[in-house]
Amino acid sequence: MDQDQGTPEQRRPERRERDPLRPRPQPTSPRQHPIALAHPVVAGYNGSTSSRNALAYAAGMARRLGRPLLIVYVSSPGVYCEPLTGQVVGLLRDADSLERWLLTELDQAADSGGLEVHVRTRRGSPARELASIAAEFSADALVIGAARHFWRHLIGSVPAWLARHARCPVIVVP
Q: Does residue 63 contact residue 106 with C-beta atoms inside 8 Å?
């Protein structure tokens, strides 16, 4: 048998015989997501004027591409230490009211008619969470607002981090 023919096990039988207890990798199925969220346009929203502009841009882009719109709101972990007891307390937000607020913001920023809209909320670093959700759903684009303050450009901003680390096109809207 030629070295270029056959499976890797056939080409290297000594490797298979040498390590019989080595576990064989099992084929894994990719994580299943609803078909409706295949390749969405992701809009990162934080309530700022530039993120509202980004939301409107993302809605138009999703409509033009025929893709669903995924609005993502990332809140801080909201964990603090109780001063008297030392107990760690997490601040929880009502997910339903947050979703209603985000959909209301979309209706005010753009025409959502005919759009398939989904909302996700996450806790943690906005840049990392937006990159994670864009990769998780194989986003066609990630649309976010520009940083508001000049000092953010000096110490680093969410758009700058995403431009370097996200696995999809990042569109920064002023």
A: no
Which residue matches tokens 């709101």?
73
Q: Which helix (H) or strand (E) holds 164?
A: helix 158-165
Euclidean distance between the first and the last CA atom of the chain, given in angstroms as a whole number = 62
As a CATH number, domain 38-173 is: 3.40.50.620
**Own/partner pairs for 122-125, CB < 8 Å, 24+ apart?**
122/72, 122/73, 122/74, 122/75, 123/74, 123/75, 123/76, 123/77, 123/78, 124/74, 124/76, 124/77, 125/74
- Token look-up 């039988």 returns 13
What DSSP line would sit under 9-21, residue for residue? HHH-HHHHHH-TT
pLDDT in tens, the chain (174 residues): 455 565 555 555 554 454 455 444 443 333 444 445 789 999 999 989 999 999 999 999 999 999 999 999 998 776 656 666 666 655 556 778 888 889 999 999 998 888 999 999 998 899 999 999 999 999 999 999 988 765 555 556 888 889 898 999 999 999
Domain ranges (residues) in the chain: 38-173
Neighbours of 171 (CB within 10 A): 18
Q: Classify burial at 121, counting beta carbons within 10 Å of its beta carbon; exposed 0-12, middle 13-18, buried 19 or more.
A: middle
